[in-house]
Amino acid sequence: MTSTARPGKDVATDPIGFEAHDHASCISAAVAAAEAHCQTEGLRFTPVRRKALEILLQEHRALGAYEMLDRLREAGFGSQPPVAYRALEFLVANGFAHKIERLNAFIACAHPGASHSPAFMICRRCQSVAEAQSSPARGALGDAARATGFTIERTVVEAEGVCPACADKADA
Hints:
Strand 3 and strand 4 (129-133) form a beta hairpin. 41% of the residues lie in helices and 14% in strands. The chain has 172 residues and is an alpha+beta fold. It has six helices and five strands. A three-stranded mixed β-sheet has the order 4-3-5, with no helix packed on it. Helix 1 (23-41) runs antiparallel to helix 2 (47-57), helix 2 (47-57) crosses helix 4 and helix 3 crosses helix 4. It has a single domain (23-171), classed as Orthogonal Bundle (Arc Repressor Mutant, subunit A), CATH 1.10.10.10.
């Protein structure tokens, strides 16, 4: 599967989520990449899983499972919580989405197919989320882990603050 990073963007450092971009292209590229990955890996990209990914891709903000369930119900996919939870679990397990623990919600992965340690910047005003890469093994956390003989296998960084759009509104 290929990354959905835009041309000229460095997948390793550029956050995706706060800047303006061709959102329709972003969605279609991510869905096509998911379809290709599922076909290559022999995974079932069912209609409900596809719709759940499309829903997550519609906005660069995290959605809770019950909001996802409401949207899936509106799209005709049933109203039982397992419908949403199973689709979200599939998307997370296969690298198409992440769970934002701070919000107990889910967001589409901005770098599907890339092995990475995500860092999420969460706007406390509008709840938009940008995803960037973190390098915990190179920073203070990595130093502490090495000093104790600990091997970091997975990290997720979640930072709360104010996005550029909300900061601009506050300045106006």
